[in-house]
Model the fold of this input.
Amino acid sequence: MLQKRIDDQPSISREMVREAQDILHRHLKRVGLKQTAQRDTILRSFLETRDHLSTDELHRLVQKKDASIGYTTVYRTLKLLAECGLASEVAFHDGIARYEHQYNRRSHHHMVCTECGSSVEFFSPEVSQLEQEIGRRYHYATTRHTFQIYGVCEDCRKKNSTRPA
Amino acid sequence: MLQKRIDDQPSISREMVREAQDILHRHLKRVGLKQTAQRDTILRSFLETRDHLSTDELHRLVQKKDASIGYTTVYRTLKLLAECGLASEVAFHDGIARYEHQYNRRSHHHMVCTECGSSVEFFSPEVSQLEQEIGRRYHYATTRHTFQIYGVCEDCRKKNSTRPA
DNA sequence: ATTGCTGCAAACGATTTGCATGAGG
DNA sequence: CCTCATGCAAATCGTTTGCAGCAAT
Done:
């Protein structure tokens, strides 16, 4: 799936990887789980991308580093990463769970093209303010929100006018 | 699943049902499909609620009117309703597709409790403005958006403080 | 008559689970 | 050592599809 980049954040630094690993390790200790090579490998692969990965895609990436790591472990680890705040699920409307990293990321949102599936990220602090405000109004302790816009991107519109239905 | 109502719209009138049925029938004619008793029954059941129905829940409701109507038909009809704008899918984060009616509804959004699954609806015109604005900025022809807030509702917080983890 | 519709059962794809084996604390 | 992690295969969940008979146009 394509991915247009609006912001150009540099690829993740050694420091950040270490810090994220620490977060994971602390989380594991806290809930009485074990630190394993597989979990670290998966975390590292995950951090090395900026895409909205499906479990399948991440599994493929992980396999390049260690072909013995199975599907199931990737699923389970992704859940762990979500638990400790390193990853979060983004539901595009294609029936597949996708994850992105949440570590050191400004709150951002997605606009998805319903024809080609490409997406842009955008930032909109107003939305976080809204979250606060609505939460207060209805007495919810809010934790997060999702905001997605669906539409048709410029390229697809061009294609459509060239080859009309 | 629970459903707290913030706005109190009266239950749907005969008029509205008729109008919605017309919309469906016109849509069917337009795309060369047929008008059937099942489709009308399903539409009527759908309109009679204000909840965010899963296909399963709608199927159960429909069966009270006509026990012979099957699962598959409900799925297929719900898709038709979505096509002609009478229904729209709302993705809470529980892995089930839910639908709500869209006919004669102001643009609204959901706040979902991650503990008990109950939800409130709220209205926020700012969000639609944002959709326009972001779409213009990145040259997308936007069609719709989703905005959901997740958090813990007052009741669940009370329960938690009574019976701490 | 022709074409689409229905309900069933089987297929499907994504995710989860049971289990025997292997590795971390 | 004891407990949890792993990988595999099988199970499960929601959803979709193929098909034979039925109904709307």
Remarks:
- The mean pLDDT of chain B is 86.
- The helical segments of chain B are 14-30, 37-47, 55-65, 71-83, 125-138, 154-162.
- DSSP finds six helices and six strands in chain B.
